[in-house]
Amino acid sequence: MTIPAQPSPAADLAAYRRLIARLPVTLRPELNARLAQWPTLFPFEQDQFAAFLRGIQSTPSSQLDALTRPLWDLETRMGVARWDFSQSESTVENASLLARSPYYPEWRQQVDRFFQAMEHNAQPSTASQPGPAQSRLVLLLLPEHLPVDPAELDQRWRSTGRAFRIDGDPQSLRRLALQGQPGTPSLASVLHPAEDTSQLWLIDAEDALARDAAPALAASASSLSFTGLAAFRRQFLAGINTIPRNISATDQVIAQLRRQDWSPWYPAALAGQPRLQQFVLNLWLSGNGALIFPNAFVEWTASEALRRARPRMLVARFGMQTRPKPFTSIAIFEDQQKISALPSVDDPESSALDAVMLSHYIWLAALRYPQGDNTFCLCIAEHPRTAWLVAPPNRWPAWAPGQSIAPQQLYQWLAAQLAS
User: Fold this and answer.
1) What are the domain boundaries of the chain?
2) What is the phi/psi pair of residue 139, to 5°?
3) Is the pTM of this model over 0.90?
4) Architecture of domain 136-419
């Protein structure tokens, strides 16, 4: 059985399943779940997963036996054969059974050993490699209505970036990045191959990015906004709050939420985009604050996009959040608008603090991956008219730190760097 570099849907997925069925039982759920989600995986994920399976397929039988024998032995001692253990997907029940076993630490060690060996044996196709000419950009926007404290920015960014004063309208940088100007293309069009929507992400706490992007560009991007997903979020919150405090029942509710037809609640912009729809569904189910807080949504969406898609360009714009209402609970994801009749009150100071902290988290997330070595990061704080720039080695501008730079000058320098 040969695992192809570019699989065709039916026959090759069947070959993948046969390969996974030869592995220890406790390795199968995550791998089978990824196969079930194959049509909604991003191209980078498909390529990496196929390479991983080729790594298993190309491993000599003696080496594969040596790597898996400790896991088979551990599963016997753990009594896995007697467990109600799902092999088709990773469940809360599976995790609970494994974690309660006294052999769990040893099992984790052997699983890590197996995956490291297979990743070493894998031969990723050239499509998954960053390539020296593939410059990338992470553009982080802290809008004018957030009263960002320059000292907070300095505390977060001074160890990795250089600060510049923006001499002009800082919002024009956003428009230039997405629209360009006569004779000079937008930064997005420099980096973004229109045939692959996963290579450009527009992530917004509000809805400014969708308005600013040219229609053709917006249609060819992975574009998500907290505001645009409002109807879906409210409906999904209602479903989340039906989850009981029971492990097996939790798995059933989560499975039901995954299977439910959410199409009436998706915004029009997500129509006909099953990959992006599934991305949002997985984001909602990941147990973070993205369902409740706009800025948490921006940070988690951006981090997951960087992990799963490795885009050439990602634009993340933060926004205003409201104060949690009294006598409600955000810990159990209560819908603040529905649970309390009190009016919503903006919280500019906390929103600004969150935006500063979470914008830096996005950049740290980008640095986890090899592509980060060739990535420019520009964090624009519109209120204090300050930009923090991080550039790859030997690709910094000649400007002195703290120098005042016109938006057009910064845009033209970035456009030249990204095109090279």
Assistant:
1) 9-128, 136-419
2) -110, 120
3) no
4) 3-Layer(aba) Sandwich (3.40)
